[in-house]
From TrEMBL:
NCBIfam families per UniProt: TRAP_TAXI
Keyword Repressor (UniProt): no
Record Gene3D superfamilies: Periplasmic binding protein-like II
Lineage: Bacteria, Pseudomonadati, Pseudomonadota, Alphaproteobacteria, Rhodobacterales
Classification via SUPFAM superfamilies: Periplasmic binding protein-like II (SSF53850)
Name this polypeptide is given: Immunogenic protein
Domain of life: Bacteria
Organism: Agaricicola taiwanensis
């Protein structure tokens, strides 16, 4: 079964889970819904969001954790919502159409401070962090035979930079600039990785950017069916990016992560789970506690390759945005924060 098919089934299962929970809710018990904005279904945010939604949910009438039932927040039904990604999720949280969402650490920092991509826009001062999750690797995927060995080789090529509203688009522009290129130097398109991969498979796309945890489903399928090159983001240009933007870090995609691709040096940002300061402290405290219980640990370890990287050891790393008061309370009680 392909990873993409698995993720689609996960989404369907989440929908059925929610419907069943509503149908079986005990009369008079309070029920609360909590949406997690993720990304496209071919990326990493979506399956991780599905795992966390299941972990923090505990529908009315369900067995308690002590009795072998759900170990989430009592009365809570969480759902993972496909979206455009980081920028879109933050904007939706600010507008009230999402209770929480995943975002890249750089985009969160820019939104909170009104800098970078949010320059000239109102600061999202009510943005708060629940947890730092895992490193998001910047992939530059090239078509076999396109002769793209460096970012500089993208000049004049057909390149997808991802959709407007995505953190990938923001980072792709920064990377192009570090190599002396702009959007005008490439034949830019703005597609999600699964769409870009289909175009590449048909010979209509030379390269595309994707920021997310490896292995990414769309890239893995493309590597298996058509073969790909993964272009390194390294050297003095990468060092310049690392020096200017502290939220980037060196990263390595291990050999054979994708079929036929050796070890590749690149850079990464962090994926973070954010919410609004207006969300109740008690609710976010319960969600944070459910995130780090033993039941969730098992779900993360078995549910996705990147789930193993979501650990309390790194939950507070690279935060450029304040913690939500409810999350802060949990981390202090757990001895992770003074």
């Amino acid at each position: 079964m392909s990873m993409l098919t698995t993720m689609k089934r996960l989404a369907a299962g989440a929908a059925l889970f929610g419907a069943a929970a509503v149908a079986t809710a005990a009369v008079g018990q309070q029920m609360q819904f909590f949406r997690i904005g993720t990304g496209g279904t071919a990326g990493t945010y979506f399956p991780i969001g599905g795992l966390l939604a299941n972990a923090i949910s505990s529908p009315p009438g369900s067995r308690s954790c002590a009795d072998g039932g759900a170990c989430g927040v009592e009365g809570l039904i969480a759902t993972a919502v496909a979206s455009n990604g980081s920028v879109g999720n933050i904007n939706a949280i600010q507008g009230g159409s999402l209770e929480s969402g995943f975002t890249q650490s750089d985009v969160a920092f820019w939104a909170y401070t009104g800098t970078g991509v949010y320059e000239g826009k109102p600061k999202v001062e009510n943005l708060r962090v629940i947890a730092n999750l895992y490193p998001e690797t910047i992939h530059l995927v090239a078509r076999k035979g396109a002769n793209i060995k460096s970012v500089a080789d993208l000049k004049g090529k057909r390149v997808s930079l991802d959709e407007p509203g995505s953190g990938t688009l923001v980072d792709a522009k920064l990377i192009l600039a570090a190599y002396g290129l702009t959007e005008k130097d490439v034949e830019a398109e703005y597609l999600k990785p699964n769409q870009a991969g289909e175009r590449m498979r048909d010979g209509g796309m030379d390269a595309f950017f994707f920021v997310g945890g490896y292995p990414a489903g769309a890239i893995a399928e493309l590597a298996s069916s058509s073969g790909i090159d993964l272009v390194p983001i390294s050297g003095p240009e990468a060092e310049k990016i690392l020096g200017e933007y502290k939220f980037f870090a060196k990263d390595t995609v291990p050999a054979d992560t994708y079929k036929g691709v050796g070890q590749v040096e690149t850079i990464s940002v962090n994926a973070q789970w954010v919410t609004s300061a207006s969300q109740p402290d008690e609710l976010i405290y319960g969600i944070t506690k459910a995130l780090w219980n033993d039941n969730t640990r098992k779900l993360l370890d078995s549910g996705h390759a990147k789930g193993k990287a979501i650990k309390t050891d790194t939950a507070l790393q690279g935060l450029g945005v304040p913690l939500h008061a409810g999350a802060e309370k949990f981390y202090k009680e757990a001895g992770l924060l003074k």
